[in-house]
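> run fold Methyltransferase family protein
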Amino acid sequence: MTTAAMVAEFGDFADWTADAVEQLGTGHAIPAACRGSSSPGALAWLAEACELAPGNTLLDVGAGVGGPAAWAAERFGVRPILVEPMLPACRAAARLFGLPVVTADGGRLPLRSGSVDVGWCLGVLCTVEDKAALLDEMHRVLKPGASLGLLVVVSRALQRLPAPEGNHFPTQREVAGLLANAGFRLLEQIPRPSAAPLSWSRRVEQVAAAVAAKHEGDEAYGLAARQTERLGRLLSARQVSIQLMHAVAAS
Ligand SMILES: C[S@@+](CC[C@H](N)C(=O)[O-])C[C@H]1O[C@@H](n2cnc3c(N)ncnc32)[C@H](O)[C@@H]1O
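> ok
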């Protein structure tokens, strides 16, 4: 179920981010538009694990504002296809990067079977109730043997603090089971390297400050901020952790 807080976080914030980037300059676009992954170290690990190569189609499901896919296109020459259910996020990704974006749910991908070279799904599984449907669809559209890069917020079994609204964090065991049932083999996993260089985090902060200056009094701003705070508390208390995973589609 999509809650008001999720609409604020993934919808309103997407529009506001695109506005702020247009004000500050295009150099701010990629760092500001990486809403789930945010660290260039994490993106580099995923890109190398998936052996991205020029001309590969990279399907990013739950692409948000498109920062990770734009980063991969710039650094590795891949051809991204973005799928994202929130219209404002699709609009923002098209505005900032001019990438092809399809407004759709990850559980019903409007793509041909076996047509995609590499799939990414970053910070999305925890926001989706039917995780199995999304992973089944990703398996269907990927070529046999293709790589899937995931960033997943994984819950420890004992999670006591409140989660951001609409989030259902899977345990490690659940993720492993979901991947296996969808036909993926989990090859490798590491905790997300979170530190970003100042050159990156400074741009993220400048965009955040521009958004706050304009929207801090809006109800949607408060709802989205509460989502971020809740996730931050869970991470600080080590009740969840952010994991990078590399799986391959077994044929
Ligand atoms: C934390 S954001 C991550 C965005 C992006 N992947 C990134 O790393 O910057 C989660 C995204 O998943 C999207 N999402 C939620 N439910 C989805 C679904 N059923 N299918 C595909 N995407 C979904 C949200 O709209 C949101 O843009």
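The first helix runs from residue 4 to 24.
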